[in-house]
Specification:
With 272 residues, the chain is an alpha/beta fold. The chain has ten helices and eight strands. It has one domain: Rossmann fold. An eight-stranded mixed β-sheet has the order 1-2-4-3-5-6-7-8, with helices on both faces.
Length: 272
């Protein structure tokens, strides 16, 4: 695979990206918190012969700029919409995991001209009564400390931790996941969500085809069966692929099944 990389100015900051693929239809991949764009390497390798993939480092992650503040969901959405426009991408397919899935939902709702189809891997949408208990809430100080402490772990030990947590992770993704923990800025730990968005109002505004990829809450997935049902009811044109054996990081837990579900959606919708 031939990779290129570069930077763009988007929404007032510098964003870094890697790009690969020979296809005409662009695909933007948005990662979860503390990961980086290269954590989509396994997916990129499988799709590069059919699509033009852009793997984005979100602000504060990878090699992108890391301002001291500005990590709210709406800001991430403006960043990614700005990148899409700066690169002249023609309505890409947007694939996002966790934080990146929240970004994708916001981009599809707020910047519909920027997205032709949306794929969201376990977005951070909870029912109000299922919100985290105060004991589980991380403070900004704790998040920052966790980011800094990981940087002190040796490369070998951190990679072993990743392999233990995600035994089915592809080797390219494991390498990227390990490196991402050294690259993420402690400023990301200062993130505060602000007012909770009305997710279902945002979802109702999304008109493009959408694939909701969900795991099993007993294994750590965020989206429950009840929440998935509400999301599908809100979306105008959507389908779900559920992975009973997976937790929050679906493609890390069951990569081959993830790719099968993704390819079925892309083929069914006529994207390749």
């Amino acid at each position: 695979m031939r990779w290129t990389e570069g930077d763009v100015e988007a929404n007032g900051i510098r964003l870094h990206y890697h790009r690969t693929g020979t296809g005409k239809v662009p695909v933007v991949c948005a990662h979860g918190i503390t990961d980086n764009g290269r954590c989509w390497s396994g997916v990129a390798q499988r799709l590069a012969d059919r699509f033009d993939l852009v793997l984005v480092d979100a602000r504060g992650h990878g090699r992108s700029e890391a301002p001291e503040e500005g990590y709210a969901r709406a800001v991430h959405a403006a960043d990614h919409a700005g990148l899409i426009r700066a690169l002249g991408l023609d309505r890409p397919i947007f694939i996002g995991h966790s934080m990146g899935a929240a970004t994708g939902i916001a981009v599809a709702a707020e910047y519909p001209d920027c997205v032709r189809a949306l794929v969201v891997e376990d977005p951070p949408i909870r029912e109000p009564q299922a919100a985290r208990s105060p004991a589980r809430q991380e403070t900004a100080r704790h998040r920052t400390a966790n980011i800094e402490q990981r940087k002190l772990v040796s490369l070998e030990d951190l990679k072993a931790t990743g392999r233990e947590k995600h035994p089915e992770m592809t080797e390219p993704d494991l390498q990227a996941w390990t490196q991402s923990k050294y690259e993420v800025s402690p400023n990301v730990g200062k993130w505060t969500p602000g007012p909770k968005p009305d997710w279902f109002e945002l979802l109702a505004r999304i008109g493009c085809p959408t694939l909701l990829m969900t795991g099993n809450a007993t294994h750590g997935a965020i989206v429950t069966r009840a929440t998935a049902g509400r999301m599908l009811d809100a979306l105008q044109d959507a389908q779900e692929k559920n992975f009973e054996l997976a937790g929050h990081c679906i493609r890390y837990h069951c990569f081959e099944a993830f790719m099968t579900g993704l390819n079925e959606f892309l083929t069914k919708r006529g994207f390749g």
